[in-house]
Write a structure and sequence with these properties.
Blueprint (H helix, E strand, L loop, with lengths): L2 H13 L5 H45 L7 H12 L8
C-alpha cells in the first residue's frame, strides 16, 4: 500500500461520507513497520561489526601480551580485511 493508494482510498471513503482515518492508520502502520525493519537491520549489522572488532582486538592483545607470536605480513593483511570488508564479500 502506497501513499497514493491511501489517498485514493481516503478520497473514495470521503465521497460516500465515511471517515478515512482507518486508511491513514494503515499507512502509518506500514511506515512504522518499515522503520522497525530498517532499525533491526542496522542493529544486526552493528552487532556483527562489534563482534569482528572484538575478535581482532583480542588477537592483537594476545600478540602484545606475548601469548601469541608476532604476526606476519599476511596475518596482518587478513586482520585488516576482516575489519574493512563485509563477510559476504571476503574470500574465505
Amino acid at each position: 500500500m502506497t501513499k497514493n493508494n491511501v489517498i485514493a482510498e481516503c478520497g473514495e471513503a470521503l465521497a460516500v461520507g465515511e471517515s478515512c482515518g482507518i486508511y491513514e492508520s494503515a499507512y502509518n502502520l506500514i511506515i512504522y513497520a518499515k522503520s522497525l525493519e530498517q532499525q533491526t537491520k542496522f542493529m544486526r549489522d552493528y552487532e556483527l561489526s562489534l563482534n569482528k572488532r572484538a575478535s581482532v582486538e583480542q588477537e592483537l592483545f594476545d600478540v602484545a601480551n606475548g601469548s601469541k607470536p608476532i604476526l606476519t605480513k599476511e596475518q596482518c593483511r587478513k586482520l585488516a580485511l576482516k575489519l574493512g570488508v563485509p563477510d559476504n564479500w571476503r574470500k574465505k
